[in-house]
C-alpha cells in the first residue's frame, strides 16, 4: 500500500513517489535562534520527526535537513539588547534548541546547516539570479523580480492581483515593484555583515533555505515541510527563486502543520500566553508533551492547555502500565496458552491497521487510538490465567514498534540510583567537551526515558526525577 500525503501545492492527497527509489530527500525549515523555542516551534519539529521516523519504518533511507537561521533582524536586536555578539547568541540558543527538542524525542537532522556557514553558496545563488535577470541590485540591496516568475502564488494559491492588494514598498526600500522581495540587505552601521559584489550586507530570510536545500539535497527534493505560517511568503518565495534559477520543480511535496492555540486563543506575547518549551519541560513529562502533540492530526489546529496535557500523560501512563504488566508476566509465567495462532493473527491485524492510518497522511491521532485498542486487548489477555510467551513477546514487540514510529518509549525502566545518574551526567559532560554530541544526546535520551530531566545552567547540570 502506498503512502498518501496531502500536498499543499496541489491541495489534495497524493501517492508518495520519491525521486529515487528507496530514498527520500527532506528539508524542514528550522528556527531563528534568538531565543528559546515556543511550543509553536516544537510542533513541526515533532510531527516531521514522526514523518521521518515512519518513512524509515517503511524502509526508506531518509536524508533529513533542517536549518538554523543564525543571523537576521531578530538576532541582531537580541544581541544588542544582551550586549553580546550575534554568533554567541546564536550558538547558545542552537544548543538550547537541541536540548529542548532532544527532551521531546526529536532526532537530530542529518545536517543542521547555518546561514553563516553557507554564505558563499547564498551569494553565488543571488549572483546567478541577477545574471538571469530575475533579480536586481538597488543601492546595496538586492531584490527578486516577483512578476518575472510566471508561477508566483501557486503554492499559497493566490493570484498576482490578490497579492498586490496587501503589498507595499517600505521605508528605505528601493524596489521596482511592491511585490518584489529582498534577497540581500545592505548592512547598517555596526551590524554584522559579509562582503559581496553589492557591498557589505547579509542575506534576506527566504534565500537561505533555497541555497542550503540545493547544496545539501540538489535542485529538486522530495519533501519540503514547515509550519502553516511559512507557506506564504517564505515557502512561496523559496519556490520562485529556486525554480527561477534551476528551471526545475523545487519540491514535489509540500507539507504544512497547523497552528497551536492556547486555551482556544492564538498564542502571542501580547496576550501573555506565550509558552516556551524550555519552561514547559520543567513542569511536565516531555514524553507526554510529545504524545499530546501527536494526538491531533498534524494539519489540524491543536488547542493547548495544562489539563489536556495532563490527560495525555494519563493516557500515556496507561499504555506504559500495560507494557510493564506484559513484561512482568513474560518474566514470571509458564508457557501454557493454546490459542497462539489466533492471537498472532489479531496482533498482525493491529499492525496492519496502524500502517494503514500512518499511510493515510501520517494520521498519528488514529494511530494512537489503535494503540489504546491494543492496550485494551493486551489487558484482557493478561486477565487469563494462562499465557503464551510467544504472544507476550509479540505484544511487547508491537508496542515497541509503534513507539519507535511515534518517538515515544512504552518500556518500563528500572529506577536509576543517584550515583548512576551522576556518573552518566559526567560522561555526558565529557562527550560534549569532545564535541561528541551524538553520545551526549544518547545519554540525555537514556536519562529522559528513565524519568530523569536534565537542565543545563551556568552553574552546571541539574537533574530531577519527573
UniProtKB/TrEMBL annotation:
Residue span(s) of domain Cysteinyl-tRNA synthetase class Ia DALR: 353-417
SUPFAM superfamilies per UniProt: Anticodon-binding domain of a subclass of class I aminoacyl-tRNA synthetases (SSF47323), Nucleotidylyl transferase (SSF52374)
Annotated motif 'HIGH' region, positions: 31-41
Binding site for ATP: 269
SMART domains, alphabetized: DALR_2 (SM00840)
Positions of short motif 'KMSKS' region: 266-270
GO-annotated molecular function: ATP binding; cysteine-tRNA ligase activity; zinc ion binding
Residue positions binding Zn(2+): 29, 209, 234, 238
Entry EC number(s): 6.1.1.16
Superkingdom per UniProt: Bacteria
Classification via Gene3D superfamilies: Cysteine-tRNA ligase, C-terminal anti-codon recognition domain, HUPs
InterPro entries, per the entry: Cys-tRNA-ligase, Cys-tRNA-synt_Ia_DALR, Cys-tRNA/MSH_ligase, CysS_C, Rossmann-like_a/b/a_fold, tRNA-synt_1_cat_dom, tRNAsynth_Ia_anticodon-bd
Essential cofactor(s): Zn(2+)
Top-level class of the enzyme under EC nomenclature: ligase
Major subcellular location class: cytoplasm
Cofactor comment: Binds 1 zinc ion per subunit.
Assigned protein family: Belongs to the class-I aminoacyl-tRNA synthetase family.
HAMAP family xrefs: Cys_tRNA_synth
Self-association state and partner proteins as the record states: Monomer.
Protein name as it appears in the record: Cysteine--tRNA ligase
Organism name: Guptibacillus hwajinpoensis
Classification lineage: Bacteria, Bacillati, Bacillota, Bacilli, Bacillales
Amino acid at each position: 500500500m502506498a503512502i498518501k500525503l496531502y500536498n499543499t501545492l496541489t491541495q489534495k492527497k497524493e501517492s508518495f513517489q520519491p525521486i529515487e527509489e528507496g530514498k527520500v530527500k527532506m528539508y524542514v525549515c528550522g528556527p531563528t535562534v534568538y531565543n528559546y523555542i515556543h511550543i509553536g516551534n516544537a510542533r513541526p519539529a515533532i510531527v516531521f520527526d514522526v514523518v521521518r521516523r515512519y518513512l524509515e519504518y517503511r524502509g526508506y533511507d531518509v536524508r533529513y535537513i533542517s536549518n538554523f537561521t543564525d543571523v537576521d533582524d531578530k538576532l541582531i536586536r537580541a544581541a544588542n539588547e544582551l550586549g553580546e555578539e550575534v554568533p554567541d547568541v546564536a550558538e547558545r540558543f542552537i544548543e538550547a534548541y537541541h536540548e529542548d527538542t532532544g527532551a521531546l524525542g526529536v532526532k537530530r537532522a542529518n545536517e543542521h546547516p547555518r546561514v553563516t556557514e553557507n554564505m558563499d553558496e547564498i551569494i553565488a545563488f543571488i549572483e546567478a539570479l541577477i545574471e538571469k535577470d530575475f533579480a536586481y541590485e538597488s543601492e546595496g540591496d538586492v531584490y527578486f523580480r516577483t512578476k518575472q516568475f510566471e508561477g508566483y502564488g501557486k503554492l499559497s494559491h493566490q493570484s498576482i492581483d490578490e497579492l498586490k492588494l496587501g503589498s507595499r514598498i517600505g521605508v528605505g526600500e528601493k524596489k521596482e515593484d511592491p511585490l518584489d522581495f529582498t534577497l540581500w540587505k545592505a548592512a547598517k552601521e555596526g551590524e554584522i555583515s559579509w562582503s559581496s559584489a553589492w557591498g557589505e550586507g547579509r542575506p534576506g530570510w527566504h534565500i537561505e533555505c533555497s541555497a542550503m536545500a540545493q547544496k545539501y539535497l540538489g535542485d529538486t527534493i522530495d519533501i519540503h515541510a514547515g509550519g502553516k505560517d511559512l507557506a506564504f511568503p517564505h515557502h512561496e518565495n523559496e519556490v520562485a527563486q529556486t525554480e527561477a534559477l534551476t528551471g526545475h520543480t523545487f519540491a514535489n511535496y509540500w507539507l504544512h502543520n497547523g497552528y497551536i492555540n492556547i486555551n482556544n486563543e492564538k498564542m502571542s506575547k501580547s496576550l501573555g500566553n506565550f509558552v516556551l518549551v524550555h519552561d514547559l519541560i520543567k513542569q511536565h513529562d516531555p514524553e507526554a508533551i510529545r504524545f499530546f502533540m501527536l494526538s491531533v492530526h498534524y494539519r489540524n489546529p491543536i488547542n493547548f492547555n495544562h489539563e489536556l496535557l495532563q490527560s495525555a500523560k494519563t493516557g500515556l501512563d496507561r499504555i506504559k502500565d500495560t507494557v510493564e504488566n506484559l513484561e512482568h508476566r513474560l518474566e514470571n509465567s509458564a508457557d501454557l496458552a493454546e490459542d497462539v495462532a489466533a492471537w498472532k493473527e489479531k496482533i498482525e491485524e493491529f499492525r496492519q491497521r496502524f500502517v494503514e492510518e500512518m499511510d493515510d497522511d501520517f494520521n498519528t491521532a488514529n494511530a494512537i487510538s489503535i494503540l489504546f485498542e491494543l492496550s485494551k486487548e493486551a489487558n484482557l489477555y493478561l486477565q487469563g490465567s494462562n499465557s503464551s510467551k510467544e504472544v507476550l513477546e509479540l505484544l511487547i514487540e508491537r508496542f515497541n514498534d509503534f513507539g519507535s514510529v511515534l518517538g515515544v518509549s512504552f518500556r518500563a525502566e528500572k529506577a536509576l540510583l543517584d550515583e548512576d545518574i551522576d556518573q552518566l551526567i559526567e560522561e555526558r559532560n565529557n562527550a560534549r567537551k569532545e564535541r561528541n554530541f551524538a553520545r551526549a544526546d544518547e545519554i540525555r535520551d537514556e536519562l529522559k526515558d528513565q524519568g530523569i530531566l536534565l537542565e543545563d545552567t551556568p552553574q552546571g547540570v541539574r537533574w530531577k526525577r519527573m
